[in-house]
Amino acid sequence: MPDLIERLRAALGPSIRIVRDLGGGMSRVFEAEETGLGRRIVLKVLPPDLAAGVSVERFRREIQLAASLQHPHIVPLLAAGEADGLLYYTMPFVEGESLRHRLQREGELPVADAARILREVADALAYAHHRGLVHRDIKPENVLLSGPHAMVTDFGIAKAVAERSGGDQGVTGLTSAGFAVGTPVYMAPEQAAGDPAVDQRTDLYALGVMGYELLTGHPPFEGRSAQQLAVAHMTQAPEEIARRRPGVPPQLGALVMRLLAKRPADRPQTADEVVRLLGEIVTPSGETVVVASGETGLPTARSRRLWWVGAGVAAAVVLGLVIAKVRHGPAPALDENLVAVAPFDVLDQRFAVWHEGLVDVLSRDLDGAGPLRIVAPSMVVSRWHGRADAASAQALGQSTGAGLVVFGSVVGTGRDSVRINAAVADARTGRQLGEVDRRGAADRIDQLVDTVAVSLLSELNRTRSIGAFRIAGLGAKSLPALKSFLQGEQLYRRADYDSALVHY
């Protein structure tokens, strides 16, 4: 990005000094200093190919509207302009980290923290909605954590970009180009469908997706293409939060699931309502309590004492069961037809992309063969620890509920050849059910992977009825194209959307 930095320095002159490149998503982000005030700021620049289609006047109008927002949980906009054909805006530098960084570090958050963050973001949305401004791109990347408080950033930016061509275009327009008017993982069904009349309830759906991720460590739908995510948001019911994390208070889980309703009319209708409901759940000290909520049918304040007594009895029962299980019980119940494909050990950096690439390709090959179903690659990668061995494979199966785990290694066997060793293990016992070892040309490793998949299915056919199957592959006729796609998948799983876009 040095050319862009030099171009900015020349256009902005001495009034703004660029300190360092912070990366970015829809815009390129820099830490900078307003030299006249000695103030640290964040400078965000729209990429030239995106800015080329944006009306400068409309961009300024949207930014000016967003700049009028003055709220403790909204990062204010300071200035906006155009320099040498580049559209930019500035905001204060917020000490802390993004919510995305915290999620990447910790996974699911403590319930009290998740509820407090959701309430503060909902409060910011309520303030903006009252002033006619819909964010359109609520996600952890756009929530900054400053001390104990959450602050929403980039109000008005998605709208300004959307109107470069007269309105939202859903996943087939700006979103698929990488400059999402909304981000596919967090898109409301009506937004994914390209409905130009999206309103504040679109932000509430995205808030629900984010809440689901804060409480379970994962969004309700992930590990798919933008189009597949759009279909999932429009047609599939998310798994209940209580099944993923039983310890979440029922009233909090119920509220998040209401926010995820497919029909806008079935969601809470205003952010004010969400703030009120969260206020009943979160005490001033940040703890969660059981309260009445007319929409959820939860216990009233009068029944709290009985609830706590019941919780104490339940805890005693659970403790007894845990003790009994440790002493005598079987391993946790696992789905014998659910397969987790672990990242492969790669001992030659020429094949580094196949460390996770085999997770993507083998998962696609094995999914739907007979009774087999696969664990989403994004979940596997986030929960994988250690090397590709039987012990790590068994731990992966226990953490994902998969009864079968595939693991192995990729080794270069000369300048032009490669060897793939793959084994499938029973996650209950750790016993190896089968092993395949295949060699082939390095420049046709994609075909070799499909051969490994067929061989693994033949091994599994000994213990379950696989029947006829079709190797799905990823549809690539070009190995460089396939490798670029796999690199894009890996970057997408890490929320590095700009880099993923380049590889896609």
Task: Describe what you observe in this structure.
With 504 residues, this protein is α+β, with helices and mostly antiparallel strands. It has 19 helices and 14 strands. The strands form 3 sheets. Strands 9, 10, 11, 12, 13 and 14 form a 6-stranded mixed β-sheet that branches. It has a 5-stranded antiparallel β-sheet with strand order 1-2-3-5-4, with helices on both faces. Helix 8 packs across helix 11. The protein is globular.
Short overview:
By secondary structure, this protein is an alpha+beta fold.
Sheet having the most strands: 6 strands, mixed
Strand-residue proportion:
15-25%
Categorize the overall geometry: globular
Low-confidence stretches: 164-180, 289-331
Number of strand segments = 14
Question: Helicity range of the residues?
Answer: 40-55%
Rounded average pLDDT: 78
C-alpha Rg (nearest Å): 25 Å
Q: Structural class from helices and strands?
A: alpha+beta
**Terminal-residue CA separation:** 19 Å
Note the total helix count.
19
Topology:
Elements: H1 2-12, E1 16-24, E2 28-34, E3 39-45, H2 48-51, H3 56-67, E4 79-83, E5 86-92, E6 97-98, H4 99-106, H5 111-130, E7 143-146, E8 149-152, H6 157-162, H7 189-192, H8 200-216, H9 226-235, H10 241-244, H11 250-259, H12 271-281, H13 304-327, E9 335-341, E10 345-346, H14 354-366, E11 373-374, H15 377-383, H16 390-400, E12 402-412, E13 417-426, E14 432-441, H17 445-460, H18 479-493, H19 497-503
Parallel strand pairs: 9-11, 9-12, 10-12
Antiparallel strand pairs: 1-2, 2-3, 3-5, 4-5, 6-7, 7-8, 12-13, 13-14
